[in-house]
Design goal:
The protein has helices at about 1-25, 45-65, 65-80, 130-175, 180-205, 210-220, 220-235, 245-255, 260-265, 265-285, 295, 305-310, 320-325, 330-340, 385-395, 410-420, 425-435; strands at about 30-35, 40-45, 240, 240-245, 290, 345-350, 360-365, 365-375, 400-405, 420-425. The chain has about 450 residues and is an alpha+beta fold.
Length: about 450
């Protein structure tokens, strides 16, 4: 089929060239001859060229396409006709005579005996097989040591990457007020701690600078950690100094649904939960929206801090998120305790009514302070500043101050500066807590 197409293409090309030639040469009349009678007769035309020109053009096209093969063919033909060297007249050439063949009668020379190769004067000693085995074993040990060192460096870096996430989880566990969050965070912390232990046991990684010690302490004192969780959960269910029955019910239900929390509980924790369930169910049966806080505080093992306050050895709450959940009275007691630990003397909480905004009176370095305490969920305006300005005069104090777990508005700051009132906001409270000895 391909050959037929090529043949048709060649025929069409030939006739195309013929038509083109006829058009071109048809413009030329050719040569003419005049006869005796005076008529002109065309003597020669170019019609023959019209037939020959296409063939010539086709040959030129073929030669151009096959120029490489033609060049190769010419080179091959030239190889059969070498160029003859020209000889100068003055040059003469001597032809070496052909050697005469040896005579049959001549004796053949005796072949020289083969010489044995001379021995090397300093031969290399051949190592003993045991030495080779020891060298191979030493190379393997060296390679394994390099690999162990590389693995140790890599997993040391991996261990440093776990320090920050573990520290964040530990901080969140200490401030968590939900059993679901506590359970999830402790599980993640346990996985990261197991990974650190694997690095230590398998790759000899030093994990002493990681939070693994805090995790082990948390695991050993899990009962106390869950007791703190229960305490924070109850504070979360407390609104305006009253424990809401429905919120405490949801909190206890969250503890019941988390089986890994129940598995971590000590017998004391379980007794606390059972007692709280009795209190909640009794309140629901009596259709009371609020629960008596005294009954909750009397639960055995709960709120160790309040027990220590009764015994005269108070434990300082140093977590501001936990402080945020306090009511007004608890916040005043906490502020008074903080002032005592910061070196203030004669710290007294004023009576609830008629105090003109003064909650605490304290002395330090011979200066008497009138202090107002505000535990709010939003920033304070200039109202507390106005109240303490009047209160410090009532209690014969030289300096007035406002303590809060939040911050102050710009108007409150300007009014306090005009009246010489000290403003202790959340940042100042954190500085005081950091200065309190452990």
């Amino acid at each position: 089929m391909k050959k037929i197409k090529l043949f048709i293409r060649g025929v069409v090309r030939y006739f195309g060239f013929a038509v083109l030639g006829s058009i071109i040469f048809g413009m030329f009349p050719g040569t003419s001859e005049v006869k005796a009678d005076g008529t002109k007769v065309l003597k020669e035309t170019y019609s023959n060229l019209v037939l020959i020109i296409p063939i010539i053009l086709e040959l030129i096209r073929w030669a151009f396409r096959c120029r490489n093969k033609i060049f190769e063919m010419v080179c091959n033909l030239a190889a059969y006709f070498p160029v003859r060297d020209t000889v100068l007249e003055d040059e003469t050439f001597e032809i070496d005579p052909q050697p005469e063949p040896p005579s049959v009668c001549e004796e053949k020379p005796e072949a020289e005996p083969e010489r044995e190769p001379e021995a090397d004067p300093d031969p290399e000693p051949v190592p003993h097989p045991e030495e080779v085995a020891r060298a191979i074993a030493a190379a393997k040990l060296e390679e394994e040591a390099r690999k162990r060192e590389a693995d140790r460096e890599y997993y040391t870096y991996k261990a440093t990457e776990l320090i920050m996430p573990m520290q964040i989880l530990l901080d969140e566990i200490e401030t968590s007020a939900s059993a679901s969050v506590f359970s999830k965070q402790y599980q993640e912390l346990q996985e990261k701690a197991n990974e650190l232990v694997r690095y230590r046991d398998t790759y000899d990684v030093d994990i002493s600078q990681t939070p693994i010690v805090q995790f082990e302490t948390l695991t050993q004192n899990m009962g106390a950690a869950i007791t703190g969780l229960i305490e924070r959960s109850i504070r979360k269910a407390t609104i305006h100094g009253r424990i809401k029955t429905d919120k405490l019910y949801d909190t206890l239900l969250d503890f019941e649904r988390k089986f890994n929390i129940k598995s971590l509980m000590s017998d004391e924790n379980k007794a606390i939960i059972r007692t709280l369930w009795d209190i909640v169910n009794s309140a629901k049966y009596q259709e009371r929206d609020n629960i008596d806080r005294t009954k909750v505080y009397e639960v055995n093992g709960l709120f160790a801090k309040r027990k220590s306050e009764l015994s005269g050895n108070p434990v300082m709450e140093k977590s501001l998120p936990s402080v945020d959940a306090m009511d007004g009275l608890d916040f005043e007691k906490w502020c008074a305790d903080l002032l005592r630990k910061c070196g203030y003397q004669n710290v007294e909480i004023t009576k609830g009514s008629g105090d003109q905004g003064t909650d605490i009176v304290a002395e330090k370095d011979g200066v008497r302070y009138a202090i107002q305490c505000k535990c709010y969920s939003s920033n304070l305006d200039n109202t507390p500043v106005q109240e303490i300005t009047a209160g410090k005069t009532l209690y014969h104090c030289q300096v007035g101050a406002v303590m809060t777990n939040r911050y102050f508005t710009q108007g409150a700051k300007e009014l306090a500066e005009a009246n010489g009132i000290l403003l202790w906001d959340r940042d100042n409270l954190q500085e005081m807590l950091d200065a309190v000895p452990v």
